Amino acid sequence: MVEFRAYQEEARYFKYAFNAAGKVVEEAPLIVTENGIVSRAMDASHIAMAVLEMPWEMFDEYEPPSDELMYGLDMEEVTRIVRRARVTDEITLEGEDEEEVIIKLGSSGYEREFRLRSIDIDDIPDEPELDFAVEVTVVPDFIQDAVRDADLVSDTVKVGAKGNTFYFKAEGERGRVIPKVQEGAEALLTFEVEEDVETAYPLDYLKDMIQAAQGAESVRIRLGQDMPLELTFRIGPAGEGKLTFYLAPRVEE
Fold first, then answer.
1. pTM
2. What's the CATH number for 2-117?
């Protein structure tokens, strides 16, 4: 018996969001309620956390369950499936008796159905509540380019704000890179800074997280001195959903 059904005519939003989350966390719950679908999970090393929120408004059709349901997902398997989505594909998520999640991809009468057995999830973390000194919103291209540029010279990147400038900074034996954007630039959609900040983060995680930028409308970045970095990718036709990552700072000796 189908317990819930969620349909969206553009599978690409889910393709990039699930692909990015699946690179960061190995297992994740899928919590389904009358308000939509939510997932929260930590990576095995507890360095990063992924929070996916898909409210019912994000879907073209949403048939909620009569009671809250939870499925456990092997994110590697989910990633393998959503990568198969074509540009023109629609996507449908369905669940049966908290035992199976069904993912349907296709268009124009051609459909592929994938079934995933639900796995046991031991712990569902709470989303942290943090007070950040810096909050900016950028176009997705900026953070993609900044992370890829930093990766040319180092495995660590410093993210910061000083005056009216928001920047990434990476240094290594191969050189130095400083992608930056100033208040008023088209790439910087919002800019709120209480104090100057600069904190270092591991690039390998950021390279995985920015995969979500391909399907995002915008990216909110929040940070504080020696605090976790928060990245929020707005997803969906009108940015109704969001994928948020938290990344612990890199302690420098």
1. 0.95
2. 3.10.150.10
